[in-house]
Amino acid sequence: MNYRFLDLDSLLQVRLNLKLWDHHKPIYGDVTNLAAGITNITTLHLSPDSLEAFHFCCKSMPVFKNLLNLSIESNKKKGWQVMPLLLNSCPNLHTLVFKGLVHRVTDKCGDACACTPNNKHNKKMKKKSKVISCLWTCQVKVLEIVEYGGSFQELKQMRHFLGNLESLETVRVGGIDADNTIFLRANLLSLPIVSSYCNNIHFI
Predict the structure, then answer these.
(1) SS3 string of the chain?
(2) Which residues contact 184 (CB under 8 A, 6 or more apart)?
């Protein structure tokens, strides 16, 4: 089903929690017009389901030229397939916030993600195809991680972010378990940071 959205130009902040109600049917809704109608916003919050809705139900991703703040909520059952396209569509993005980093591992997350599917063919293809990472061209200055758990997947993702976001100036990490504070902080502080503008991680 396709909807038309009118008079959304004045919106500055949008919080989306879209749902793919029936995963067994090949027919989904269409959020293309919704995405095109909110291109003037400066702040966007996306739920885990919204990420998948953008991936499956958006025929073309518009350019969010005014978007400064992007907040992503992660869920271990939902993938990040749309992340490369989304980041490439936000040329002036300043602050990127993640509520959790654990998500469903797929072979479609692209270069925004450090996850590797358990598939030998996909691993070989990934090694052969050297592409420009969307993170290299991303202008994000502030990276904030909320509810960081310190798992291997999360640490691997942090290494990926810090090793590719070249314009990064500030990194903030929160939600670390008090019982493992010293160990988890030490792991994060040992990660190399590619940006010459950022020399520390702030724990909140």
Answers:
(1) CECCCCCCCCCCEEEECCCCCCCCCCCCCECHHHHHHCCCCCEEEECHHHHHHHHHHCCCCCCCCCCCEEEEECCCCCECCCHHHHHHCCCCCCEEEEECCCCECCCCCHHHCCCCCCCHHHHHHHHHCCCCCCCCCCCCCEEEEECCCCCHHHHHHHHHHHCCCCCCCEEEECCCCHHHHHHHHHHHHCCCCCCCCCCCCEEC
(2) 148, 150, 176, 177
Question: For the chain, how many structural domains are there in total?
Answer: 1
Q: How confident is the model at residue 116 (pLDDT cuts 50, 70, 90)?
A: low
202 forms beta bridges with 172
C-alpha torsion angle, residues 167, 172, 176, 182 (rounded to 10): 80
Q: Is residue 19 part of a domain?
A: yes
Residue 8 lies in a domain: no
pTM of the model: 0.86
Average pLDDT over residues 39-67: 93
All residues at 6 or more sequence positions from 113 whose CB lies less than 8 Å from its CB, including other chains: 80, 83, 103, 157, 160
Instruction: Show the domain range for 98.
Output: 13-203
Residue 6 covered by a domain: no
